[in-house]
Amino acid sequence: AAGAAISANRNRRALELVDEALATLDEDADDDGTLTARAVLLRQRGQARSSHACTGGVEDLVRALELHPPHMPGYSQLLALLARESAMLREDRNPTPEGRVLQELNDTGRGFGTLAELAIDAADTGSVSDRCAAADARITLGGVRMRDGDVEHGRPLVERGMAEAIELREPYMEARGAGNLAHFLRELGHHEEGLRVLEESLARHEAWGWAPYHRSFHHQNRAEILFETGDLRQSREVHRRHLARRHGDDKHQHYVQAVEARAAAAMGDAVAARAEAGPSGDRSMLDAHRMDVVQLRTTGLLDAALAEGDLAEALSLSRDVLEQAAL
User: Fold this and answer.
1) What is the pTM of this model?
2) SS3 for 222?
3) For the chain, how many helices (H) and strands (E)?
4) What is the C-alpha to C-alpha distance for residues 175 and 192, in angstroms, rounded to an integer?
């Protein structure tokens, strides 16, 4: 039930279900079945917590890794999820509890790249769950390599993970792969190719009737590419048509608002930029556990301050973020 709630983006309900289930387990039991059940529940709790901007789930995932017998079902999924989330965790000048946990993993040779490779190796049964884990891990590993400049080896991994997700009819995973590929193509200056990747994925989601929730990530990436190529009106139109009605406190809302704030600021619409970016003086992004949330929220707030001519706030925000986050 918790897994179904996560798939439906009902993460608060998933947390309730997980906590209820954990309370029924014998804390002293150490048989494989009980250990696996506890590890799976911790994995689900970590996944649900990671959906929110300020409640990271890495500590739950690492605890699950400590408990999960490697020969039991679900181990590859845990490795793949931990690799994905640890790759996105923010780095601070003074390590956070989550950062210290990951550093301990890294010190034992289990950094996020290695975790992804281990997930692929562990996905050896041919089951649907193992195939999903392998695809997920390939998307993560390929994205990490592209981020580090190794496009030659990174892009084929992402594309293979996407192909596997399509074969498995896994909309979230296919969307993640396409979104990651488009993101890194954009960062490399291949904006038109990035748009093509997103549009092809959107066409698949539309043709197969997949939930609109998954498509919203693509529209956000489209808006970002259009912003960077100077098509500000079209960027804002994408937001108006596909993204403006999103509500809630999940991490994606922060991405959406930041892109719209920047486009509005670039058009001189300081009122709209401030409405999307958040109030002047806001430093809540420094509570976020994901580096991309910190970066996007900060740039949205910076552009809003500059559009208002508030140089003092722009400088203060820049100093505060640079003092805490290792950008």
Assistant:
1) 0.89
2) helix
3) 17, 0
4) 18
